[in-house]
Design brief:
The chain is built from two helices and no strands. α1 runs antiparallel to α2. The chain is mainly α. The protein has one domain.
Length: 90
């Protein structure tokens, strides 16, 4: 293994860890909000209420959290690509 392989592997591992750490909290909060939203929808359906199509604060927050988790997954994916590239070049 040459220095280029080690550098690519090390950079890839750093990106994987960084992406995981950045995406863990938004994804967990997104799942919590999604579960709450489903619970509210079930309650309103049981009560006979109709939900209008306007965005709620929770839906806006879920979109933001989903985007943050997606960006973190892209960073981790770039890390995986660097690690694989380090092995391929070796």
């Amino acid at each position: 293994m040459g220095p280029l392989n080690l550098a690519l592997g090390f950079a890839g591992i750093i990106l994987i860890v960084l992406g995981y750490r950045r995406g863990r909290r938004p994804w967990a909060r997104y799942r919590e909000l999604r579960a709450q939203d489903a619970n509210v929808a079930r309650y309103e359906a049981w009560r006979g209420g109709v939900r209008d199509g306007s965005p709620t604060g929770a839906s806006v927050a879920m979109a933001l959290l989903r985007r943050q988790a997606r960006d973190a997954a892209l960073v981790a994916g770039a890390g995986v690509v660097l690690v694989v590239l380090g092995f391929v070049l070796g």
